[in-house]
Amino acid sequence: MVRHLEYPKKPQNTVKRYNNRGTYDLGVIHSIINTSSVLHVSFAPSPEQPFPAILPMIGVMGSFDYPSASIDEPLDCYLHGYVSSRIMRLARESPNGLPICVAATKVDGLVLSLTPNSHSYNYRSAVLQGYARPVEMEEEKLYAMRLITNKVVDGRWENTRVPPDNVEMTSTTILRVKVETGSGKIRQGGPHDEAKDENRSDITEKTWTGVVPVYEAFDTPIPSDTNKVKDLPPYLDSYVSETNNRNRESALAAVKEPE
């Protein structure tokens, strides 16, 4: 039996509603983070402001100390942002790190049932909680910037003008989030209707039920007006087609009931 590393269950990360859909598996949670184009990061802006701040950010899981660590091992979350943004300033001013939450969600399907109340999504979601500090060492900053760039398009860092110059390095701040807790939640399968509705022919014979698969897809890359590369680079062509196929397969696989 294969044993997977899990985040410890604490009051703030334990899944309560539909807890059978909850997961604490590091590999599953990190994969959701790494395949989500946008992460939503929340933090408390100040004691005087009653509303939490939420920012869309680009981020990726990694380990500078152990760069060969796999997706199912303990990792940090690196977030990319502008040097003078509020979250970066607060992180610099927090001696113990800025407490933040990082959330990501992938929608795999629209689940259409007999009644509106039973409709749902097939989805994969993840939440991380931890303390964010700015990355100070240049080597680690470059490591994180490479990870983040290649998350957007695999192989892109190596096919651009690198390393960034001094102005670019100075204007960019990378936050390293030391993760304290994490959890995920996954829903897959078809509609789950009430027996009282499934046994009524006046409803079942007029209401279509099932799943509409949903997945993110990339269209054919369009060159810029200043582009001088005649042919589409193989790494970009492969990334687009392979990602589209993988996303479609995930959405179709989610239609099946979990085993």
UniProtKB/TrEMBL annotation:
Q: Write out the ranges of the annotated region (Disordered).
A: 183-203, 239-259
* Source organism, top-level taxon: Eukaryota
InterPro entries recorded: Pyridox_Oxase-rel, Split_barrel_FMN-bd
Give residue spans, biased composition: Basic and acidic residues: 190-203
Query: What's the short name of a Pfam family annotated to this entry?
Result: Pyridox_ox_2
Q: What is this protein called?
A: Flavin-nucleotide-binding protein
- Lineage from the top down? Eukaryota, Fungi, Dikarya, Ascomycota, Pezizomycotina
